[in-house]
Amino acid sequence: MRRNTNQLNDCMIIGSGGQLGKALTLAFRGQKVATYDSYELDITNRDAVIAAIRDCNPRFIINAAAMTNVDACEGEPDRAYAVNATGAENISIGAVETGSKLVLVSTNYVFDGVKPTPYIESDPVNPLNVYGESKLNGERLCAGVVSDTWIVRTSSLYSAWKKNFVLTLLAAVKEGRHLRYVNDQYSGPTWVEELAVGITELIRVAPPGTYHLSNEGSASWYEWAVEVLLAMKIDYPKLDAVPSTSFQRPATVPPNGVLMNNAAAKLGVELDGWKIALARFVGSL
Fold first, then answer.
1. Is 90 exposed, middle or buried (0-12, 13-18, 19+ CB in 10 A)?
2. Spatial separation of the C-alpha atoms in residues 216 and 53, rounded to whole Å
3. String of b and e for 64-78 (b: at least 16 CB within 10 Å)?
4. In whole angstroms, what is the distance from residue 226 CA to residue 181 CA?
5. What is the DSSP letter of 273?
6. DSSP code string of 73-132
7. On the CB side of 82, how many CA atoms lie within 13 Å of its CA?
8. Does residue 5 register a pLDDT over 90?
9. In this structure, what are the phi and psi dihedrals at residue 46, rounded to the nearest 5 degrees?
């Protein structure tokens, strides 16, 4: 963590211990950046959050902190709302005190997934689970407090760090497990390193507002798994496609979680197709 008391930081990254937070820290190399992970800053503690923001005095605050385990949010709704909604509001209040601009990272789960085509920013929201509802509340609270707020919705993040779909899949293959992945729920797999660069470009060229940023295209969880194995040149016969009804989950998952990067693309901020990004990710390992 870097803090320059009473000096203006270019950026303050909250949630820097997560996979996107790590990628954002790398994307802002060469600038004055203050980073806080969840062990250093509890965003549900308003006084602590405001004190940290005053200490950093940043031009931009990026809130990448969240409770993202969708099923766990169903079991701990109070905690989910405390982190994803109230925590986001606490950060926005601190941003007002220092005159900082704010970026909130949000999710495709604010939509119900019934639309047959990818979601654009102006589509009606209707979350199906606690995670999506708590993140939507966070969006509204931040936008209501800070006029200079960028809401960046994304989906299905993966990286070389932390627990995520790709690393979990590869670990299961190494153990020789029989794999079953859903073939009727879709999203846009997104490499966090490309998303982080996209966010830096977005805040440079785009006015405040709501934007979708994910790697282009769509994939079911099964299609994603197949592409990972192809990219890794792994011949693995113990992989089956199954309907989502094969699994009983606490949270209801939208069948269509695909986002269209409509608003950002009009300003020249676009991410590569998800297969291209995945191949680049594999080459970086």
1. buried
2. 34
3. bbbbbebeebbeeee
4. 10
5. B
6. HHH-HHHHHIIIIIHHHHHHHHHHHHT-EEEEEEEGGGS-S--SSPBPTTSPP---SHHH
7. 9
8. no
9. -60, -45
Residues 6+ away with beta carbon under 8 Å from 256:
111, 113, 114, 115, 116, 118, 119, 185, 186
Q: pLDDT tens for residues 80-135? A: 999 999 999 999 999 999 999 999 999 999 999 999 999 999 999 999 999 999 99
Using CA of residue 31, residue 49, residue 20, residue 106, what is the dihedral sign?
Answer: negative
For residue 36, indicate whether it is catalytic: no
Largest separation between any pair of C-alpha atoms in the chain: 59
Q: Of 131, 158, 211, 222, which one is the catalytic site residue?
A: 131
Q: What is the pTM of this model?
A: 0.94
Per the structure block, which two tokens stand in for 121? 């920013």
Structure-token pair, residue 99:
């005159």
| 151 contacts 97 by C-beta, under 8 angstroms | no
Helix (H, G, I), strand (E, B) or coil at 258: coil
Label residue 285 by pLDDT band (50, 70, 90).
confident
Residue with tokens 């790398």: 26
**Whole-angstrom distance, CA of residue 87 vs CA of residue 142:** 10
